[in-house]
Amino acid sequence: MLAIIGGTGLNDFQQGATVGERLTPYGETSAAIIQTQLNGRDVVFLARHGSPHRIPPHKVNYRANLWALKQLGVDRVLAVNAVGGIHPSMPAGAIVIPDQLVDYSYDREHTFFDGVAIGDQAAALEHVDFSYPYSASLRQALLSAAEHIGLAVSDKAVYAVTQGPRLETAAEINRLERDGCDIVGMTAMPEAVLARELGIDYASICLVVNPAAGRSSTLITMDDIHRVIASGMGR
Ligand code: HPA
What we know:
There is one protein chain. By secondary structure, the protein is of the alpha/beta class. It has a single domain (2-232), classed as Rossmann fold (3-Layer(aba) Sandwich), CATH 3.40.50.1580. 21% of the residues lie in helices and 25% in strands. The strands form two sheets. Strands 1, 2, 5, 6, 7, 8, 9, 10, 11 and 12 form a ten-stranded mixed β-sheet that branches. The protein binds hypoxanthine. Hypoxanthine binds next to strand 7, strand 11 and strand 12.
C-alpha cells in the first residue's frame, strides 16, 4: 500500500472514506487518513499539518502519523514538502527529489526506539542504518515518472531540516550552504527516520516555494509563497 503525506499546500488533496485509527500509542495523527484512488490505484492520504492546515512543523505528531500508516499495511510513503531554495539551480517553482538530508531540528519525538514499551511490545533498542535516508527504488520511480510526463525535476539535493516555525536568517542559510545543503524545509525529519525505523520505503517530492533567506532582493512573504504553491502543487 502506498501512502502520500501531503505538506503545506496539499492538505485537501482528495476526498474519500476515512480508514484506520487516528488514536495510536503515540497520540493522535494529524488528520484522518483518507482512502482514495490516484490514476486507478489505491492510495491513502494523510495531511501532515491537519485538515484544515493548523499544526506547525515542530508540533506534528510524526510518530502517530507513521505508526497509523504502518497499521494500515503501508509499505511505501511519498512525502510532499514545501521548501526554500538555496542552490541557484533550485529557484521558486522548481520540483526537487532530494537524495540526502541534514537534520538541524530539535526537541521533536524522533524515534520509536526510546526504551519505552508500547502495549505488549517489549521496549526495543535499535540503531537503524540511515546512510541513505531516501529509498533508492522509490526515488527512481519518481524520476522515471517525471521523465515519462516530461516534468523537469532536480534529481539530487541535500535537504536541510530546520526547526521553525520561523524562517532562517541569511547567515544561517550561508552556513547551510557551506554544509552542503541545497534546499531547506522543516518537515523531512523525523518523518524520514521514523519511516525507516518501521521498515517503510520513503521518498520526497519537494516544491521550492521561495528563495531561501538572503537569496533574493526582497524579503520572504507568505503571499509570495502561497502564489508559488497555487501554481506548483498541481504539477
Ligand atoms: N525555510 C524553511 N522552511 C521552508 C522554507 C524556508 O525558506 N520555505 C518553505 N519551507
